Amino acid sequence: MTPTQNAAPSSTRFLQVDGGRIAYDVQGSGPLVLLVPGMAELRSSYRLLAPALVEAGYTVATTDLRGHGESDTGFAGYGDPETAGDIVALLEALGRPATVVGNSLAAGAAVIAAADRPELVEGLVLVGPFVRNPPMPFGMKSLFHAMTAPLWVAAVWKAYMPSLYAGAKPADFAEYRDAVIANLRRPGYGQAFSQTARLTDHAPAEARLAAVTAPALVVMGDRDPDFKNPAAEAAWIGEALGAEVVVVPDAGHYPHAQQPAITTDAVLAFLRSVHPDA
Question: Is 3.40.50.12780 the CATH number for 13-274?
Answer without folding.
Answer: no
